Amino acid sequence: MSLQICVDASFVLKLVLDETGSEAAHTLWAAWIAQDAEIIAPCHLIFEATSVIRNHIYRRNISAAAGQAAFDALLAQGIKLIHPNGLETRAWELARQHNRPTAYDANYLAVAEYAGCALWTADDRLYKAVHDALPWVKSLTHDGFNSKIECA
Questions:
Q1: The whole model's pTM is what?
Q2: Are 78 and 90 in contact (CB under 8 A)?
Q3: Residue pLDDT tens, the chain, 152 long
Q4: Can you name the residues that pair with 80 across neighbouring β-strands?
Q5: H helices within 17-152, ranges in order?
Q6: Structural domain count of the chain
Q7: Which of 16, 34, 119, 131 has its CA 20 to 30 A from that of 148?
Q8: Which CATH number belongs to the domain containing residue 43 in this structure?
């Protein structure tokens, strides 16, 4: 089995939109691809990221053409979307344990935990809320230029 890394939508959006932190995301992504890592995420990543791209178009933060290009790039990333048995129950428990206001971020935690790999996020609120208890949660802001892959 190849080395796995879990990413959340906030991280992946840095790859397909021109945002603060995009350069760090691209640097890490290239390092992971060079190491033949398998990038994984829960199935809802595609829906979450697509929704954000559409919202950027709707609010005219980006053009329709730029949005289409971002959507196409999203689909081309080659992220393996997984849904392990018991994901919802474990995500619910993680959201409760870490007092998270929503459960969708906890699905990323549950997938990374299931795979025994790091979760990379660009969501500082998530990172700050769980990193002390879950040191395998990595932040693009805090850990972004340390491309060493760490597993749980």
A1: 0.91
A2: no
A3: 479 999 999 999 999 999 999 999 999 999 999 999 999 999 999 999 999 999 999 999 999 999 999 999 999 999 999 999 999 999 999 999 999 998 999 999 999 999 999 999 999 999 999 999 999 999 998 876 554 444 33
A4: 40
A5: 22-34, 44-58, 64-76, 87-97, 104-115, 124-130, 140-143
A6: 1
A7: 16
A8: 3.40.50.1010
